[in-house]
Amino acid sequence: MRFLSLLAALWMLQSCATSTPLQQRCAEGRRHLDDQRWDRAERDYDRALKLSPGYGPALVGRASARIGLNRYAEALSDVDAALAGSPDRLEWRSRRGVLLHALGRYEEALAEFDRVLARSPNHAASLTGRAMTYLRLKRCPEALRDLRRARRLGVPIPDSWLQTCADLK
Fold it and tell me: Does position 41 have pLDDT exceeding 70, yes or no?
């Protein structure tokens, strides 16, 4: 899905310092994510999680690797585990919405994006994700509203996405 790639680009995970073995594993995983070496990134985050089970940034990093491997259900489990420890992390909630969308759970995805946007109305990744979910549900007025808002915030929304509603008719 092209929009998953766009949203992944919007979500730069917090970089880990390299002072502890845990942080080193996270930093290695991040480098592998940047190089799109999904299997290696997953291994590095697995190693980080052996050092600190439940460490949110490592869980979300592993989720990113699993997205690259098209293993969305496992990625969702990782994001849910990370959110259990830090339920107010908006970037992680937005990621959860994208994963729900990827799994075809569109109404749940909308609820997750709405939750983020209620706290941060200009959250570009959530606006884009919600717009794509609205498109999937053929709710064009809402989709166009969010796509235009996201574009005003600087998200590179292709013109073709704005024309999608005409193609759905």
Answer: yes
